[in-house]
Write a structure and sequence with these properties.
It comes from Alsobacter ponti. Belongs to the binding-protein-dependent transport system permease family. It is a multi-pass membrane protein. Helices cover 77% and strands 0% of the residues. By secondary structure, it is mainly α. It has a domain of 181 residues: MetI-like (MetI-like fold). The chain is globular. The relative contact order is 0.15.
């Protein structure tokens, strides 16, 4: 049963990645502007013949379906092509920029997901009290504030309160571990606080639902301590919708990181994607978006595996 479930999930992964590759490949061709014309620029020596020659060399003169077939065939062998501007393999370009984005996403997820569990449990425990109402107001505010706006406010506050503190840019972890964490802390907070607000509300709701069940009343009637009721019995069932949302939020973080990286001048995949769009760098854009999508898809696959451990009913 478990083997069949995993095979079905893997088939879904393959279908999603194929669909994304088709959509991305065809949609970016509708972006206004010609890649070859942008590459050649406003040089007076540019002639229609030279543009046609360049298009033929890059394979852009072929029918779009044939272009996709050639690209997909090479991609299945691990060859995603070369950058139209640098001539380097696009996977090498992505490898240079992927680590800052991964760091930012993981740190934001840790801030949002790890803190959401105790915050949600506390709100459920304080239900109906003034502290619960205050925390719910804060979480609603957190849900409505865009991450990029929050990041800009953080930069302004840091520039005012501590003008000597460097809040922009990126330092590799291997060069300066403390500087690396320090530079990523503000953008991670900007990304992670809305996640914290969303997930804490979810945990609160799931905890309140679990605490109203008969088995909780039975445990309390048997004299089980309130701490054990909360963290052993109720929280285990409340984690099921929480895990689902964490997988979805990871995709949100990957998308939000693209904008936040621009705000904090982080050289991650966000800068790479925006640069590829401006340059009409088709191979680089296709591969980068496919990498981001693959990350989101595989995180959700990991969430499905966690279901098997958290909820035995999934294995039935």
């Amino acid at each position: 049963m478990i083997g069949r479930l995993l095979l079905n999930r893997l088939a879904d992964l393959a279908l999603v990645l194929f669909s994304v590759s088709v959509i991305v490949f065809f949609m970016i061709r509708f972006i206004p502007g010609d890649a070859v014309a942008i590459m050649l620029g406003a040089n007076t020596e540019v002639t229609p013949e030279r543009i046609a020659e360049m298009r033929a060399r890059l394979g852009l003169d072929l029918p779009i379906v044939q272009q996709y077939a050639q690209w997909a065939g090479k991609a299945l062998r691990g060859d995603f092509g070369t950058s139209l501007w640098t001539g380097r393999p696009v996977l090498d370009e992505i490898a240079v920029h992927v680590w800052p984005t991964v760091q930012l996403t993981v740190l934001s997820l840790v801030i949002g997901a790890v803190l959401a569990v105790p915050a949600g449990v506390l709100m459920a425990r304080l239900r109906g009290q003034a502290a619960d109402a205050a925390m719910r107001v804060v979480t609603v505010a957190g849900l409505t504030i865009p991450s990029f706006w929050l990041g800009i406010v953080m930069i302004l506050v840091v520039a005012t309160v501590a003008p000597g503190l460097q809040a922009l840019g990126y330092v590799p972890f291997s060069q300066d571990p403390l500087g690396n964490i320090g530079r990523l802390l503000l953008p991670a907070l900007a990304l992670g606080l809305p996640i914290l607000a969303n997930l804490s509300r979810l945990v609160r709701s799931a905890m309140l639902d679990a605490l109203s069940q008969d088995y909780i009343r039975t445990a309390r009637a048997k004299g089980v301590s309130e701490r054990k009721v909360l963290y052993k019995h109720a929280l285990r069932n409340a984690l099921i919708p929480f895990v689902t949302s964490v997988g979805i939020m990871t995709g949100y973080l990957l998308g939000g990181a693209i904008v936040v990286e621009q705000v904090f001048a982080i050289p991650g995949l966000g800068r790479l994607i925006l640069g590829a769009i401006a340059e009409r760098n088709y191979p680089l854009l296709q591969a980068t978006i496919l990498v981001v999508t693959s990350g989101f898809v595989f995180v959700n696959f990991a969430v499905d595996l966690l279901y098997l451990a958290i909820d035995p009913r999934v294995r039935a």
